[in-house]
Hints:
RT_dom; nucleotidyltransferase; transferase; alpha+beta; Putative RNA-directed DNA polymerase from transposon BS
Amino acid sequence: MKEFGGAQTEDLFYHPVCRDQLFALRSSAALPKERPELRRSKRGCRAGVIFPAQIHPDLYISRTRSCAGRITADPSHPGHGLFSPLPSGRRLRSIRTKTSRYMNSFFPSAIRLLNTKQPAVTCTVKKWSEETEEALKDCFNTTLWDVFRNAHREDIDNLTNCITDYINFCVENTVPTRTVRSFSNSKLWITPDIKGAFVSGDKEELKTVQRELRRKIRQEKDNYRRKMENQLQQNNICGVWKGLKTISGFKEQKSQPVVSSAATPATVCAPNRLPTHSRHFTLSPMPTPPNNTSLLQPVPHTPHQVRMALKKNRARKATGPDGIHSRLLKSCTDQLCGILSHMFNLSLKLGRVPKLWKKSCIVPVPKTPHPKELNSYRPVALTSHLMKTLERLVLNHLRPLVSSFMDPLQFAYQPSIGVDDAIIYLLHSSLTHLEKAGSTVRIMFFDFSSTFNTIQPRLLGDKLQVAGVDHHLTTWILDYLTQRPQFVRVKGSESDRLLCSTGVPQGTVLAPFLFTLYTADFSYSTSSCHLQKFSDDSAAVGLITDGDDTEYRGLIQDFVDWSLRNNLQINAGKTKELVVVFCRCNNPPPAQVNILGTDVDVVESYRYLGVQLNNNLDWTHNTDALVKRGNSRLFLLRRLRSFGVQGPLLRTFYDSVVGSAIFYGIVCWSSSITDRDRKRMDRLVRRANSVLGCPLDSVVVVGNGRMMAKLSSMLNNTSHPLQDTLTALGSSFSERLLHPRCVKERYRRSFLPAAVRLHNKHNAR
């Protein structure tokens, strides 16, 4: 120890005068190895004189509540500090501190305030059980629902409010509640016994208490693991999956918006700004839906149909603004299907949606880990579960009416068609064209801003009538989308109520399908150009020969003009173009496409529907992304293994989390990747195999199996965009398929030729 102003310095840097207020990190962990004069000597003391003036000021942290969050100053730089940690002292050695680049790089920004913690969250939850469900069933069985019908007749708003209040009244008087306090770092296996063991001992019995604490933690972890195994045996997949995510830390809660009265785009998000930002008001007033009910014919929904729709509710979904729990609707379907079918039919007959069902609570979900502006949030609407049930019934009736009007190259929200089909169609069109000499493929990936929030109900109503939708159903949809009360909820704070008549609420059942209807009137598909869509992800593909891109540019301009007429905002800054050309001649690059006064950037790689596509149409960038994602998921698998989870539970987590990340889009790339990339992927599988302790299928085995399944699905789906191509490959003599003519090895190793070879090999056995 060394003398400093009459005081002694020890391993912990503090001055005796400030002992009760300041503490710092241990010097042995804070000093660099490259500075031997500041390290411990063999005698156990300091080789140099160490005192607070030599320590980086960021290491000082206030210990008292009154000074929480205040960082002290360096005595050698008094102008930089908030207060001085020492009443007096003199600088004994010149050392680079505050302004030193070396010291700034040495002390990372990860050093946090040790006394900072998040407050406990207190909430009130309902204790649902089989007894409470049976009590509610008895209550609703003895209810005279005709009293409500006769009292309100065709007053749909008062009828809905009255029945909703009655259901909530029964729930409040039947289901008990309890108050729960949750902490940010609390785990489900930390029981009150463990917390008691943690605080039971004093300093003399610290080792005994720590030993008892470790024993109890191991015991409670084992009990929690057995609980999940019992849930798996009872086929409670939801409970098992929730427990696995809790243990592994998979998809932890992202950063939430910060509530502030003075919101700035860089740091905060005020609730009162979000509803105005997301609703995109139009200058012209919205048309009022017609009130002439003589032209409207009801669409009857039987109690059996309502019962089946109610059973599709998930019990753990958040309640809407009306307060009705989804678990109540799922458990009391037989008792409520009669009165609900009457309410649904009355709403469709009148062409009006009750105001309570139109009301939505907007929850801003961050798109990025650290959002900085309002556009970085996705406004997800929480609506009534009764309204979602009615939406399912309407969707089942609406889908067959507009099947002939839908865009054949819309791959979203279609039965037996998904992301893999969209990527396969794009690659098949590109690779078949690149078989020709002097060919080029240009792909324009469009990006829209706030797509669902900019839909105009008036334009949607016109398109519904063109598609052949009934007049009463069109009127009901327009009433549903206009004059919608909504408010924003952020961390317990709620904004003012506003009426919105633009867009469709995200998170509802009808919203995705209504958007596909809204964009279905623009479709383009020729032998040299086509526009394919997956919801709001649109891609214009130009198959160019000899540099003639006139049709390709015309398609892009037509699509931009159509978007402007339909109030869809194209983000030209995020719109990218991918140019694929394998010609060895030194031709100049094609001229950039200009959209709304902005030249579109030509990129080497683009992430389309979760798959990395590059200008060589190989899978190097995609493999790098999959390996990176797979390594992060393997860490979660090891955490489960260290927890004691094994057997079926560990395999379930692997198939759901790890395998889904490693084999994402495998039908598109399994036959086309290089041997080097395949070995990298197999190495991930072997590492997962060592953790699981059971054999796992390789990339080739998994890819071949899924390619066979995808080809079989495409053959059985008559509405698939590649159905004509597959029909031309059929044989009239056997179940074998004709192999496509391939000139380049690149096309021969793509999905369709490889799947045909697997299909013929399987049928030859």
